[in-house]
Amino acid sequence: IPPAMASPPIATFSIGWIAALSHELTAGRLMPDKEYPDAPEDFDPSSSDTNTYTFGRIGRHHVVIAVLGTGDYGLVSAAETASRLSASMPHIRIGLMVGIGAGVSISKNVRLGDIAVSEPIGTHGGLIQYDLFKAAVESGNPHDQRTGFLSRPPRALLTALQKLKSSHDMDESFIEEHIEHAFQRRPRLKKSFGFPGRERDPQASAKSRAEDDSDSPEVHYGIIASGNVLVKRSQTRDAVLDSLATEHIHPICFEMEAAGLMNTFPCLVIRGLCDYADELKNDVWQKYAALVAAAYAKDLLGHVDKREIDTGPLLAQLLNDSQYGISIEDERFAETRKCRPSTRMLVKSKARQSP
Known about the structure:
Blueprint (H helix, E strand, L loop, with lengths): L12 E7 L2 H8 L4 E3 L15 E7 L2 E7 L7 H14 L5 E10 L11 E4 L8 E3 L3 E6 L2 E6 L8 H15 L5 H11 L4 H4 L25 E4 L1 E3 L7 H12 L7 E3 L11 E9 L10 H16 L4 H6 L3 H4 L18 E2 L2 H13 L2
Parallel strand pairs: 1-4, 1-5, 5-13, 6-10, 7-11, 11-12
Antiparallel strand pairs: 2-3, 3-4, 5-12, 6-13, 8-9, 8-14
Organism: Zasmidium cellare ATCC 36951
Protein name: Nucleoside phosphorylase domain-containing protein
GO molecular function: catalytic activity
């Protein structure tokens, strides 16, 4: 275990890392090269800040990890957590949302334990909120129109992403090394956070990978679909996928928090895949999936240029930059925002099925 040492000044922390669940926080805490036992002496959080923070260093970067409160989940809770973090630490320059998600395995060879990373494609910033629309009228015909779009991740992260993809192409991935190092530090966690075994993947027989059938996690880049409802029925999943396909959007992953962040805390979204958004969803893969996502995040930060961060814009400044600007609808249209009828009916059905 790295020796404890005093935390550096709060202004040196430039990277905000948000986790939604306790095991996502645990996975995140396994990654720093140094974890500081206390907050910086000069840390003066906002009076309304109820977040819990962990401070550490990964390589040359000082990182603060925030976690949603117990029992909190979804877009609103994530947005509130990010807002409090930004208010208490306005010097944060890049953000990461790291945790678990559901893999979309229809068109890609996606397996449990793989990693999904949001990457801008076309006009989309890498993340889509699939259940938010407003009523619109075009040529006298009413129809649903997607409300705005979500911000792109900061440039420093997108640059690092390209460097990391090239390194992985050259078989220079440190994801498994970071995982092994984490277990060396905390051997007891290997039992609960270790690889569950491919036989516990309900689609394992259909997911064999050519000659080199390794259990090493693969990384998938593309659009991540975020919404207010936990997708755990294939009917719900397929309805959302069909709806998005009409807009030529083909997500690689479902999750529940990130869309709440992107317009107040532009970040890269990293998800370890723990289920297929269907009836076979369970908790078996969650901790390992959280760990591989955290290990990928550490690998990524090794490619982030500290000078680019230090001289780059604050997150708050990005929100005023037209390149990252958010298409915000006029407030007079607020009352017309709605889910698509098909999605809304599935949400209602889901609510009736909940205990």
